[in-house]
Amino acid sequence: MKPITRIHSRTAVLADENIDTDRIIPARFLTTTTREGLGKLCFNDWRYQADGSDNPAFPLNQPQAQGCSIVVAGRNFGCGSSREHAPWALLDYGVQAVLCSEIADIFRGNALKNGLLAIVIDELEHRWLLKHPGIELVIDVREQFIALPDGGRIPFRLEPFARHCLLNGVDQLGYLLQHSDAITEYEQAQEAA
Amino acid sequence: MSGKTLFEKVWDAHVVVAETTDTPAVLYADLHLVHEVTSPQAFSELRERGLQLRRPDRMLATLDHSTPTLPTNADGSRPYANAEAQAQVTQLETNCREFGVELHGWDSADRGIVHVIGPELGATQPGMTIVCGDSHTSTHGAFGALAFGIGTTEVGHVMATQCLLQRKPKTMAIHVDGHLPAGISAKDLILHIIGAIGVDGGTGYVLEYRGAAVEALSMDERMTVCNMSIEAGARAGLIAPDDTTFAWLKGRPRTPQGAAWDVAVATWRALRSDDGAAYDREVRIDASAVKPTVTYGTHPGMAIAMDAPVPAATNAQEHRALDYMQSKPGQPMQGTPVDVVFVGSCTNSRLSDLREAANVLRGRRVADGVRMLVVPGSEAVRRDAEREGLHQVFTAAGAEWRVPGCSMCIAMNGDLAQPGQLVVSTSNRNFEGRQGKGARTVLASPATAAASALAGRIADPRDYAVRDNRRQEQAA
Fold first, then answer.
1. pTM of the predicted structure, to 2 decimals
2. How many CB pairs under 8 A join A and B?
């Protein structure tokens, strides 16, 4: 994974609360055996009309949302299934960060492992961002704040190991494999017991 | 020193490397369940990196999500929804063969939904850590196991190291006091609980269900409850193992046998929260207040008693949900016309669930215009149900009796509802489009699903039980 230190983009807003993983990528698309190419299916049933054309009512289809890689989403984004296809689809669609006052546990873990910044912010600031789409933000992963155009800052806290992995492009499996001896010792102790 | 919770006991026993400020714990996984949807990319990753499975003996695979529930075609082929679904199944068959994983595939007498067969085989045991690339892995918590869903990257981690990087979650006790009224099921209870704590009430927590009403539940019912922990946002939900648990597990193929069984039970008996153990949060639920409960919106937290008025929307998401569902504020869900009824899924596809539905249907006919699908959770459930003649009750009533699989719960195998159709479903998710694009899902118990199929409208199963009693009295 390549290191991620900062993201600079305008925001797009998906204000609905509880946007579940079935809305992010409907289950009927999960028959794939690869990670690639899911961006065109992201938010499929919300984003397209029955004839396959773009749904103008979908917030990310609107002209001012084009090119935005930071999404401010309603509370409890990513609830539902454990499908990692959800962050894969979002990243492939061009979303690099999701800001929210609460993010579902499994989705958040999956997102961070793939370099999608799933960031929890305070409710007050979340509410303000929801009301002000199109704000130019800089997310600083190292210093853990979001810079606003007026010089204001929104602090956030990433799980320290996830942050370390993002900043340094650390491969978590590689890290786990370094503990092979400890795992062997654990297994031997269990079998002896 | 204060005592430990059940969760802490299981967690502590599986820490390989302790958590620090900078690094999560390395947590050992005793059992890794695998299915076709969330594993192919992890197997590919292993191949690309030249890695082997660390403990294939701790893996168990099955085919359930993309599999057709219709019988084989005349030429022996299977009626897959599309070529991709078939390729995904073939991929898991190949992966299991090449990597040496036990697969309960098409030719296995034990194939079924991953969360149904794990317990059936006795692979699920108290005190274990169990993971699977599936959020309903929480089901196995019914046995006092710490069981949770993981993403595909983590599936790869477990394949290569048998471990996961995890931060210790918070704990929440859900005390269910009193007793469930007659005719009220575990599904009603868990929908009631999620309605009470909210769709995100459990985020960041592991739940422990406890109290007299929980102790009184059968294993099937406990699985129904733990299964839906994730619908409140909790990755895992546990119930302390007891004599009910041990009696259910005894003699199953993968459990310890003979003297080893007694040793295991003695160890398992210690798996309960100590008196004075502290939880981060505690919630009390009165079991006697639970009624037949259904959902009225587009997430499982939007659940109410079927005779209670649908609450008015308080925000944009709720407005959207009520519009999508065509639910009317101020009116009860009971009486809403029904198009499709689905009995199945890892929530409610076990033998007792099928009996519950069959007891309502017996001697009656599904209403005209209603399509009803009954999909057993496993080949074992199918065999047992057919031995009891339940399949005949279903088909005589006009329902379809299918081959085991996830089916219309996730609607990726071709079993789905049409846009606008209302489905009363014993599954776990009522998200927009979950059971087919534009389909409207109302979550309910097997008894409520059966009663609704008969009435053609959302109906209270207790009304049929009353009629049955009257019929029996008149006959006597």
1. 0.97
2. 172
